[in-house]
Q: What sequence folds into this?
């Protein structure tokens, strides 16, 4: 995928007003963009379609959830630019197992926009190239 970013990649991005959030790329979107979701602390009213625990990623330190309601399309060139400028930090990608849980959670979440579910469905149902 363009600009050195791929599905499963993880980056920490400043998101006002609550400082920084960890984002996971879960599917290609349109016009070369990616569909990203962010990880946030689990609260009483959280969408529990996908719960992450400490063992799921080195950045996760307590029970967290994927905030499907705040999913967004991001331009990989802009993210790469922020990484190059030091305003965004790339982290270890999620494992394929965790990525699959996040993607499946998106399909079952009532908070992910239908437009984004369509991107996710298209990606998950398309033939994937073999990686060597």
A:
């Amino acid at each position: 995928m363009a600009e050195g970013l791929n599905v499963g990649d993880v980056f920490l991005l400043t998101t006002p007003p609550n400082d920084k959030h960890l984002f996971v790329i879960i599917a290609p979107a349109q016009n070369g963009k990616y569909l990203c979701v962010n990880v946030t602390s689990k609260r009483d009213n959280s969408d529990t379609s996908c719960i992450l625990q400490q063992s799921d990623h080195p950045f996760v330190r307590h029970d967290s959830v994927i905030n499907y309601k705040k999913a967004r399309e991001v331009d990989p060139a802009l993210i790469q630019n922020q990484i190059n400028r030091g305003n965004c930090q790339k982290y270890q990608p999620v494992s394929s197992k965790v990525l699959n849980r996040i993607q499946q959670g998106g399909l079952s979440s009532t908070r992910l926009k239908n437009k984004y579910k369509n991107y996710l469905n298209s990606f998950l149902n398309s033939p994937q190239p073999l990686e060597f």
